[in-house]
Structure formats: C-alpha cells, structure tokens
What we know:
Elements: H1 2-15, E1 20-23, H2 25-34, E2 39-42, H3 58-67, E3 71-75, H4 86-96, E4 101-105, H5 109-117, E5 122-124, H6 141-153, E6 157-161, H7 167-176, E7 180-182, H8 185-188, H9 190-202
Parallel strand pairs: 1-2, 2-3, 3-4, 4-5, 5-6, 6-7
Helix pairs in contact: 1-2, 2-3
Amino acid sequence: SSFIMSKMALAAYQGGAKGIRANTKEDIIAIKKEVDLPVIGIVKRDYEGSNVFITATTKEVDELIESGCEVIALDATKQERPKESLEEIVQYIRDNAPNVEIMADISDLDEAINADKLGFDYVGTTLRGYTSYTKGHVLYENDFQFLKDVLNKVEAKVIAEGNVVTPEMLKRVTDLGVHCTVVGGAITRPLEITKRFIKEIEG
C-alpha cells in the first residue's frame, strides 16, 4: 500500500538516502507527505504488443506530473513502444512540465548515446540485462565496464542502477564518477534479504 511505501521511504531517509525512486502516482504523493526528498517517479504498466512498461506513454507521464515528483524516469530503450515515440514523450514532458527533469532507463550504449542526444537530464543503467538483447549481462561484470563506457560517452548525469547490492558496490560506482546510485531490492525487499541470510546457514 501507499502507506507502507511511505514508511519504507521514511526508513530510507532516516538511513541517509538522498532521494527516492517510486512507482505510481499514489505512492509518490504519500511518500512526499512523509519525507522531504526528491523523487524519481515511474509508472509501471503493461501494454499488449510492447515490452516497454516503465512510463510507456503520455498517460503515465500525466500521472507523474500530477504526483509532484521532481524527476520522471522512462524506458529509453530501442524496443517497440505501445504508442508515442521516445522523442514525442520527451517533448511532451518539456512542454507540459518544464521544471521536471527526465531520466532515461537504458540497457546498452547506443541507447545511452541516443538519450543524451534527446536531451535527457539523467541516463540510468536501469534496464541492463532486462532487454532481450542484453539478457545475461549484469551491471557489475568486468568491474562495471558498461557503466564506465556510459560515463565516457554521455554528457548527461549518469545514474547507476541495477545489481548494486552491497555497500562496496555503491562505493565503487561512486568512485567511478556517477551522479548518484539507485539501490533497489537490496534495501526494499525484506523477504529476499531474510532468505539470503537463512540460505547461508541452511544451505
């Protein structure tokens, strides 16, 4: 529920988080009542005939504008979109919410470069390993080589996201020069965290 998500955001804030990435208008509104932190907003929604599900159309954009989030993140991959083109959605946000920044969730270097050309404020490695053509790849392979390549190729601020699961990993990507890092399941999934601990003693 949005109530639970707002309390998880509060715990993250109390632990030292500098921002929150959250899904749905309702959750974001509840979170912003609880903590005074910038929010990267997304709306996940499935559309038939498309693998794009993170802020896929202007419908989701409108919900995020209404939420009051500071940054709108969206799938910026080369996958077929359900409705508007990536360029059209970027322009729509610029026209309708000029004070809101935009984050590109990408999975490969070409997508990062394209997002940079389209004027995204942030490029995030969120979808590395989640598209059909990057399946099996993880952000941390070869000492974060993919992240290094993105940092070298774009002017936008780079956000490390995906498989950053330990404090040591966070330190490493920070040292590489990212603007910030989104840590997801390593913080927000108590069931998975508990299982990981139990597995060590039960095998």
